[in-house]
DNA sequence: ATTCAACCTGGT
DNA sequence: CCAGGTTGAA
């Protein structure tokens, strides 16, 4: 069934299985654009946003209702006939099932994690539908090389900027708000485009900082090892295909291959393993995850100051999380990570409490993009007003207000 | 084998 | 000083 007026098709899917608003903006992929929609007052479950993503040959547009994913395919050439459009949508549907890994039952996993872990149990209802995307390894690798010592907002700008600079525009499309403004969409550039000699200097001038060399040298390594372009203009380059083959080898072997690239350490390698190479139990440990482990999972360390992430400690944390969450530990980690993301918090969920709540002025600053989700999400009855400076995971631990404050003191 | 400063840039 | 770190040299 297709809605003839909008061109969207419907894929039945409970919201519990996938929350686009969370998943597309929680720092897995950095190339989705979200457009706010005019809400239909007649229909309480009308989509709040449209999300768009540019693939090699098409732009995929998504919306979500309580019961469906609505999807639409746009390709460059004008006026496809009904049959062509049907074929394209069928292809897009296959892509969607693969990209969102819809054969994995997320509800079942949440159940499992909740039964194993009290901390998870306490946040799962407010952060449902967070699943791992199955991304293209090449794009994912470069994106996470950009992520080192960086924040999500700037990573997003850098990845957009990469696409705009190094791959030609695929097509332009009016934004869904009816303003008449058009956006232009670029696919992610292939390795050969970033292996070109002057890329490094150009990226520097675009504000990539020291990551510019990493990106260029990684692209160059790939192209030199596996070749740049085969005959068909339209398909993947050999190095992209080779990266995909890492899905078929062991986690350890795949990680060893990834670590050969410049700008790729353990953490970035693990992100690629988890997010695009099907290694579901890999937990990328960053300072953020480290702090969560200390505060809520009894790992040693101090919440004050900055602690070095040694390889040994990294392993200990991985082991701990796999022990707690099991075979899909990496997926569970993503839920916890998202629950503490500030950038995620502003997503149009109505504030239950008055914004005039003054007291927060002297709040000890917390590192990173975290915030007090409890303030704007429905607050559980057990945790009243103190919640105004507690993160979701803090609430989870049932700490007293005093304890929370205590644990937050730094320096 | 371990520890540690330096690294680009932008935001608090 | 910190951001979803990595590198190369003590």
From TrEMBL:
Instruction: Reply yes or no: does the keyword DNA damage apply.
Output: yes
Q: Which SUPFAM superfamilies match?
A: DNA-glycosylase (SSF48150), TATA-box binding protein-like (SSF55945)
The protein's superkingdom reads Eukaryota
Q: Which reaction does it catalyse?
A: 2'-deoxyribonucleotide-(2'-deoxyribose 5'-phosphate)-2'-deoxyribonucleotide-DNA = a 3'-end 2'-deoxyribonucleotide-(2,3-dehydro-2,3-deoxyribose 5'-phosphate)-DNA + a 5'-end 5'-phospho-2'-deoxyribonucleoside-DNA + H(+)
The record ties this protein, via Pfam families, to: HhH-GPD, OGG_N
Q: Give the residue range of the signal peptide.
A: 1-21
Which keywords does this Swiss-Prot/TrEMBL entry list? DNA damage, DNA repair, Glycosidase, Hydrolase, Lyase, Multifunctional enzyme, Signal
What InterPro entries is this protein classified in? DNA_glycosylase, HhH-GPD_domain, HhH_base_excis_C, OGG_N, Oxidative_DNA_repair_enzyme
Q: Where is the HhH-GPD domain?
A: 146-341
- Enzyme Commission number: 4.2.99.18
Q: Which protein family is it in?
A: Belongs to the type-1 OGG1 family.
- Name assigned to this protein: DNA-(apurinic or apyrimidinic site) lyase
Please name the source species: Lentinula boryana
């Amino acid at each position: 069934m297709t809605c003839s007026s909008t061109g969207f098709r419907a894929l039945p899917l409970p919201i519990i299985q996938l929350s686009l608003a969370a998943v597309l903006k929680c720092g897995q992929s950095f190339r989705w654009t979200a457009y706010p929609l005019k809400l239909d007052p007649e229909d309480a479950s009308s989509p709040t946003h449209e999300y768009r993503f540019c693939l090699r040959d098409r732009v995929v547009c998504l919306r979500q209702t309580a019961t469906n994913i609505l999807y639409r395919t746009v390709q460059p050439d004008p006026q496809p006939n009904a049959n062509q459009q049907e074929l394209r949508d069928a292809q897009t549907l296959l892509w969607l099932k693969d990209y969102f890994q819809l054969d994995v039952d997320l509800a079942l996993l949440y159940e499992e994690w909740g039964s194993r872990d009290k901390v998870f149990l306490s946040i799962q209802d407010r952060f449902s539908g967070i699943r791992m995307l199955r991304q293209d390894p090449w794009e994912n690798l470069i994106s996470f090389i950009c992520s080192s010592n960086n924040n999500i907002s700037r990573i997003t700008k850098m990845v957009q900027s990469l696409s705009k600079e190094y791959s030609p525009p695929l097509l332009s499309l009016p934004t869904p708000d009816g303003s008449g403004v058009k956006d232009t969409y670029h696919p992610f550039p292939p390795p050969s485009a970033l292996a070109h000699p002057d890329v490094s200097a150009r990226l520097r001038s675009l504000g990539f900082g020291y990551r510019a060399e990493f990106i260029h040298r990684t692209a160059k390594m790939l192209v030199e090892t596996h070749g740049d372009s085969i005959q068909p203009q339209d398909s993947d380059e050999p190095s992209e295909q080779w990266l995909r083959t890492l899905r078929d080898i062991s986690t350890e072997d795949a990680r060893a291959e990834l670590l050969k690239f410049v700008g790729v350490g353990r953490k970035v390698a693990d992100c690629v393993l988890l997010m695009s190479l099907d290694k579901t139990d890999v937990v990328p440990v960053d300072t953020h995850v480290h702090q969560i482990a200390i505060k809520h999972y009894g790992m040693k360390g101090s919440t004050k100051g900055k602690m070095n992430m040694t390889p040994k400690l990294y392993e200990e944390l991985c082991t701990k999380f796999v022990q707690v969450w099991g075979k899909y530990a990496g997926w569970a980690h993503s839920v916890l990570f998202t629950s503490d993301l500030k950038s995620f918090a502003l997503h149009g969920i109505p504030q239950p409490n008055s914004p005039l709540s003054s007291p927060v002025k002297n709040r000890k600053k917390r590192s990173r993009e975290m915030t007090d989700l409890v303030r704007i999400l429905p607050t559980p009855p057990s945790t009243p007003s103190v919640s105004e400076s507690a993160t979701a995971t803090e609430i989870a631990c049932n700490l007293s207000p005093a304890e929370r404050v205590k644990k937050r003191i730094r320096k």
